[in-house]
Amino acid sequence: MSIHQLKYIQLIPAPLTEVWNFISSPKNLKKITPPYMGFDIKTPDLPEKMYQGMIIAYTVRPLFNVPMTWVTEITHIDEGKYFVDEQRYGPYRMWHHEHFIETHPGGTLMRDLVSYIPPFAFLGQWVNPSLIRSKIEEIFNFRQKALEEIFGR
User: What element of type H or E holds 151?
Assistant: First the structure.
């Protein structure tokens, strides 16, 4: 069982408070997720801002348009600095996603660290480079472009 990690860095030309207000609202997740993922939040009455301990359930279609339930918990928050979401139920054996933001010349620097264990034991490890990892990279590339459309380059 191997834990895989991916790191992403993006400079967003907007003030930290504006970026934080956007990324800390669960309702904005769909805006930065590729449409083919069929991302649909199932948790009713979501608040405008996430909070530590918040559970969010989604339906996603990561592969072959097959719907899956994904449940995450916001496990850590330091307002205006970082938050962590962890999978409680879903397509991975383990998913831990750290989101960091900081003021930077030219705007806000956003850094992500994704740690995950693929599903399906040996088979998941085997297809990880060509299928799972590449799909995660595709999703983050979409997110980067979506954030550029929202905040500029």
Answer: helix 133-151
Q: Tell me the Ramachandran region of residue 144: left when phi exceeds 0, alpha when psi lies from -120 to 50, beta otherwise.
A: alpha
Q: Is 44 helix (H, G, I), strand (E, B) or coil?
A: coil
Neighbours of 37 (CB within 10 A): 19
Q: What is the CATH number of domain 4-151?
A: 3.30.530.20
User: Residue ranges of the domains in the chain?
Assistant: 4-151
In this prediction, residues 137-147 reach a mean pLDDT of 96
Mean pLDDT of the chain: 91
**Residue corresponding to tokens 């030309």:** 13
pTM of the model: 0.91
Q: Give CA–CA dist 57/87, Å, rounded.
A: 10
Share of the chain above pLDDT 70, in %: 92
DSSP string of 52-102, one letter each residue:
TT-EEEEEE--STT--EEEEEEEEEEETTTEEEEEEEESSSSEEEEEEEEE
Integer Cα distance of 141 and 27 in angstroms: 20
Position 150 confidence tier, pLDDT thresholds 50, 70, 90: very high
